[in-house]
Queue: 2 jobs
Job 1
Amino acid sequence: MTEIPNPRPETARALKPPGFMALNYGRQTPLITLLAHVVYSAMLGGFYRLVGS
């Protein structure tokens, strides 16, 4: 039997692994992530208060 060549090219990773606190994606990544969590929590708390009243 003849071997059929693989038609797919070799794929390389587009992104590096995130590393500690995702610092491989930039220095601001942990800060932006924390800020996004704070904003989301504030919005969620606001809606909870609005509905709970």
Note: The chain is about 45% helix and 0% strand.
Job 2
Amino acid sequence: MKALVVSDDVGSATQLHEVLNANRRIKECVTRPWRTLHEVPSEQGDQYHIVFAVIDQNSQSAGQQLQSVRKKFDSFLVVVGHADSSEDVIRLLHQGADDFVDLRRDMSSQITELISSAKTRIGIDSTPQNVIGVVGAVGGCGTTTFAVNLAAGIAQNRQRCALLDFVCQQGDVGRFLGINSNHSLQELCANSSFVDGTMLERSMSKSCAGLEVLPSVGHYGDRSQPDVSDLRHLISVALEKHDDIVIDLGSCREVQGYSSILEQTTTILLTVRPDFSSVCRARNALDYFKTLGLNDETIEIVCSRMGMPGHLEQKQAEKILGRPISHTLPEEISQVNHAINCGVALVMESPKCKYSRALNRITHSLLERNQSEKTQDKKAATARETVGLAQRGVQLIKQTMGCFYL
């Protein structure tokens, strides 16, 4: 979303510009003084989705300023100023404004709420948000390897992705990526009441291709666990800055203590090895997910290490699971170990190996499905809005005809 700020007040314009740049939905923000507004070419009038006009609503030229912006830009127009009364705001709306931001209140919260509502009011579709939870049926399923490479693959496609390590006692995400962070999951959970989007963003370690990582640094013998509410808060805060989040949840045994976290995910990827013990544990996990009331369509099975000696055939595994396997990953132990030893994601180190190609197919499948669901939701919302407008039109016609006959 592109935004334009029109203002002669340097202080207000600077404050507004900083707030807009901090909002992840604003991709570009430009500031212009009122005197240069006429210099904007007419063909550029529709390139800004939203225009913020900083004015003094008590001045006699306020109405003329709004009209000049409205003629120049076919955009969502927001007036920024001081509201002495509700009548002032109503007058501005009558003069052509679509919304109002009060400089006397917290600007950040107002802008966040305004942009969130504006994208539906003016038909701007936001980037779909993905919260992907990766769970292993048992240990040794390659859960962390898969989570790290999936996050790196998403970051390659979407320029940015957050990777959270929720294996609180012995998480390996940081080690797999060679990250020695000064901040960890445990530290943020201990101070969760002070954690906001900016603090979380600064606490995460930057890795390859736009991947941002929050590692876990649990120690042997440390049985303390972060509170579930703190972990849920971290996910909510991460969504303020990221459209895509991958969470390494460890094995199903560890997830049982954090079952409510699964409710915040849009997709659950259950990793399983192609052996009898692992497949049976995966079936138990699926039954457990069902007792939690999770949507079965959001759960996908990923069979890793395909090609192991003596492994079950895919059809045999699917018969035990009672459902098809959504994705498979080949066994490439030497390539995976080399990437781990180098502290890089395999999709970055060896993008053409079989594992990387298979993982890229999974990445594209997840992103395309989420985009398709978003499009369907938008069409349904548009249809409901059209029906509502038609019904209100019929009611208005009936009222008008009734007045005519009277």
Note: The two ends are 50 Å apart (CA to CA).
